[in-house]
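Lay summary

Proteins are chains of building blocks that fold into shapes. Our project writes down both the chain and a compact code for its shape. Here are two examples, one after the other.
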Amino acid sequence: MLEFSSTKNYVGIQFWGSQQTLEVLYNWIYKFILDNESGIESPWESETMIQNPRTKIMSSFAYEIRKAMQGSRLVKEVTIPYLEEQSYVLGSEITFVEYIFFINTIKANMLYKPTSKKDIAILLLLEDGFERVCKEVDYKTGIELSSLLDNQLDVQSPYIFHMMCEAQLEFLKMGGGKRAFKTIPALVSIAEAFTQKHSHYVKTIEKTLKRLNCTIDEIAVNDEGFDYEAVKW
């Protein structure tokens, strides 16, 4: 079973579980990766892409789980009820922004592979944990963020990974806190289809690609000068 809580500075979610639980979650994510590199033909895979942008989002989330499994992120001791024995659980941290993009992405990918009751149960567990934590931070904003998990993002866009990076960078620059937390719906709207912010971003990125005569995989979000290691979770 996974446990969820907000990070101290409201930057993201802490999740905790046994090594076995995290391994189940890790394997579950890779079950739904649609990528030519894994031998699975994706309905939207571009021949020019080195890696599907949805795969990048899911792999980023899975990376944190793998690091947690290795004990390289968070570790805490727990007491086993009735046995009075000490054990430990492993955990990691994911920003609220990345979590929203991940859930939208894996839900879209699940449409293209057979799913079991166990698969649905894991998804519901991840959604429930997110919604509960967000409402505890700020109930009104939590309601808004919960609605964003319901296939609201344009995950079919070839720019979806860059949209996540843009939204996350702007969020992290605010330094955390409830004030920054309340801006997440507006920041994530960059990836909501038919919004003005989404339309503007797509037009801007396409002009840039045309001017530079390159593909989206050849450019990165301009985060020069930002120290990710210094983020106060």
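And here is the second example, written the same way.
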Amino acid sequence: MNKLIAALISSLFAMFAFAAGHTATPATPATLKAEAKADKADVKATAAEVKTDAKADASVSKATSKAKVKNAKARSKAATAKAKARDKTVDVKPEDQIGANAKADKADAKADAKADKAVVDANATVQKVKVDAAADKMKAKTDTAAVKASGAADVKASTAK
């Protein structure tokens, strides 16, 4: 038990000696100035990142709403074309009904294909905008990290002076 107490007391003195040897250096005016400059740059970079993120999100939202409108218009146009094609089959003679129905079916398929192409194009545009927005966000995040690292390096360099 005495050996344990002696070991604890000696380690306590060793810890005090170590702590006393490594006192923190007081901050110089250059260090304080560098820290303030780095903090200001950090805030500015973070604000720019937030602004870029908001702008990217807005562009995605705008593209999505435009795509929804295009999709609705394409489907509406297809429905109108189908209705017109079916209207043409109403006043046809019974012996010509099969040919008229085939012609209407062909018009239906053509209208659906045209609408589907418009929907695909609109969705592709949205995906492109989403990818661009994600890239913009990552670039802004990288720029912010670079500014923070630069500020930290400047503070470290001013401390060494």
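What can we say about the second shape? The chain has a mean pLDDT of 87.
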